Amino acid sequence: MDRVSELTRERTGLSVVAQGTKQDVDTARARVDEILQQPLTPDAAVELALLNNRGLQASLRQLGVAEADLVQAGRLRNPVFSFGRLAGGGFVEIDRAIMFDVLGLLTMPLATEIQQRNFERAQYQAAYDAVGIASQTRRAYFNALAAQELVKYFGRVKETADASNELAKRMVQAGNFNRLAQMREQAFYSEATSGLSRAQRQAVSEREKLTRLLGLSGAQLDFRLPERLPDLPKTPTEPQDAEQTAMEKRLDVLMAKRSTEATARSLGLTNTTRLFNTLEIGYQNKSETGNPRANGYELELELPLFDFGAARTARAEATYMQSVHRTAEVALNARSEVRESYSDYRTAYDLARHYRDEVVPLRKRISEENLLRYNGMLIGVFELLADSREQVRSVTEYVQALRDFWVAETNLQTALTGRSPGAGGASLPPSAGAAAQAAAH
Asked: Which CATH number fits the domain that encloses residue 176?
């Protein structure tokens, strides 16, 4: 796990620990309780997910499976003992033999090297899963926080619409307002009510998505989020040699390379054993009634009379070329995703900055001017209420733009050093992960 924790820390700033003992579980639970004492920050949410997500802990157990395969590859097969007894006519004949797998001994270094590469790939896979949980948690965190913040603004719109609708009803009753204008205010009130309901439902949905990633239940469901999203950075990130960084740091690229290397070594093992797939040597003796015991040895060798191994070799070569093309595809997609993620990031940053520096201040100045005009009796109360709604709407759009920026920033960092931003589970094609094992059969 040391290597897995290092890979994860390089890409998320936080380590991951496999909880294999009761002490590990108790330590993690204590840290979870400590984190939940304060409103969650993005980093705190990621740390909580790395500690508490049960799906991630289950994925980390695959590393133990790969380690067991590596250890098994370095061990010779158990010897085979055979015993036979024939009796009849007053005579007893006994045969004994013990056989050892000599071919397995000769090919053990190559088999161990193959499993070593598979084990390294399993380490990358474990880190890949951890980075995936971290990026999903950050996105879910910003979505939940923005949804919570939007509920407040939609609530303000509804309050304004409620006041406007009530005033319109009273003025109609007093004969100072026409029916059409009153119905327009009533329609806006209905839209504001449904908008608030949708915002509340979305807030619950986004919070539950975050809750699942954090692995929380019971009393832990009362975790707190900050009141608002983090502010927009002063300047956007300008990654240097982004595509080259992805080729060197992306975990899915590194996993694909390890798979191809393991498959290449498996091809070498297949070529080595294409003619002789079985070679066993052992000690043998034979005892007969009235005769001295006979001792000797036995050799078992598969004769290539009908199968010269051409099919196994062709299969291994095809699996290797498949792995090569898969690796090329992963690398090509990684470069494209980096370019796309950076474009999304810069667009989201520029849009959020536009709302922050232009739209929201302008709506505020318009609102202040309309308030002066209302105080001077140049406009009516309905115009003032309509302007208030427009101001709230511009702030709501800024919140959404700010949320999109933080999600885009998460996707960019993930695309640079971790994995595909759009990957939910393992993003490698299924054949790539099993290529090495397939070539060895």
From this structure: 1.20.1600.10
